UniProtKB/TrEMBL annotation:
PANTHER family: LEUCINE AMINOPEPTIDASE-RELATED, PEPTIDASE B. CDD domains: Peptidase_M17 (cd00433). Transmembrane segments: none annotated. This is Leucyl aminopeptidase family protein. It comes from Sandaracinobacter neustonicus. The keyword Transmembrane does not apply. One of its GO terms (cellular component) is cytoplasm. One of its GO terms (biological process) is proteolysis. It holds the Pfam family Peptidase_M17. Keywords: Aminopeptidase, Hydrolase, Manganese, Protease. Residues 308-315 form the Cytosol aminopeptidase domain. PROSITE patterns: CYTOSOL_AP (PS00631). Signal peptide: none annotated.
Amino acid sequence: MTDFDRLLATDQGADAITITPVSEAGFDAFLGGLPELARTAVAAAGFKGRADTALFLPGGTGRDWSLAVGLGASEAPGRWTLAAAANQLPEGRYRFSGPLPPQALHGWLMAQHRFSKYRKPDDARGPRQLLADPAAVSRAIADANAVAELRDLIDTPAEDLGPGEVEAVIRALAESVGGKLQAVVGEALIDQNFPAIHAVGRASPRKPRLIAMDWGDPQHPLVAIVGKGVCFDTGGLNLKPGNSMALMKKDMGGAAHAIALARLLIARRLKLRLKLVVAAVDNAVSGDSIRPGDVISTRKGLSVEVGNTDAEGRLVLADALAFAAEANPALILDFATLTGAARVALGPDLPALFANDDALADGLLAAGAAADDPLWRLPLWQPYTRLFRSDIADLNNNAEGGFAGAIVGGLFLERFVPKGTPWAHVDTYAWNGTPKPGRPKGAAALSLFAALGLLESRFS
């Protein structure tokens, strides 16, 4: 894990190199205030203050120097403003020249994080340390540690991260914070009424499991955080083609988000009780795989005809949501890499949000906008429940005709949440296909800070 304590420190007035923000609108004023040598450097580089750009600036003597970073159309630094700078700078201490929102520290830290489990780190420059407001340092480091763990979990190949390893991560978290852990594994899932989780995971030699952690003061309101933890998704007997299967180590991205959010809620010491619930399975192929046309039972008692074994995420979440709801939480949030349809509709950067409560949805959208972590709400359009009807069971896990796939996934999950319980479902990609400053190709935290902001606003 990256040692973020080396990358961020309390500003006590030590010597440091200056980082100056430049917006596109303020570029001319910035340029007019530079010495001639620096103006020449700006012209040569074509720097205009665009977002995700940075430029070394020589001083008046040519011996001292500073750095300019582009803000783009914004007038204030955002979450990723400093990421491009952190990628370019040599080892040393740096200080931002103006007001620095706490969330902007995140880009500085994450730009210097590397997933190095399988190779030596390729960055030999040493740490670039930013000096910051003391009140923001510890929070920024906690945020970075949570996101680094999220990324590392998703980036780890399924060979080294199965249901047992996911349990071990949650068990370690519970032990570190005084939480209570429950794990229901293998055939015990049948005995303890988690039949859908068992059905999806039974084909793998790595035993499926329901993992739950409880933490917090019993006098506080209960919040349930649920994550889809499909550690590898072959598609089952409805086998995915190779190009679709290639990234399926990331199909536990919902679980990684749920774990990271739990870690951050505990670090913030919010006035809530937490129930973290993760269904961890492999969707594998063997003689014991569930088959198209099978009818399986669920914890809630609804029967489901398996129209497609590759729509397995909603099956494991059905049991996980029903279990979480039994504790009568004040609200439920679930995270899942659930549908390709959400990516077709909104692309890789914008998670789809579904909610049965307008106030909860509005709060998440507002928190996402404030945290530079956007979501987009899609409707739980009730007439589309006809698309997953079954002639022989209560539900089908597959939509007829392939239309409205993301909405159908949300509507299916809604059937396992009690009426009157506020619930939101985030269908996230959890992946960057194209590298950006601070966000390399690979695992991505999408919607994490939106959810954190919403819960902070309600339970601080």
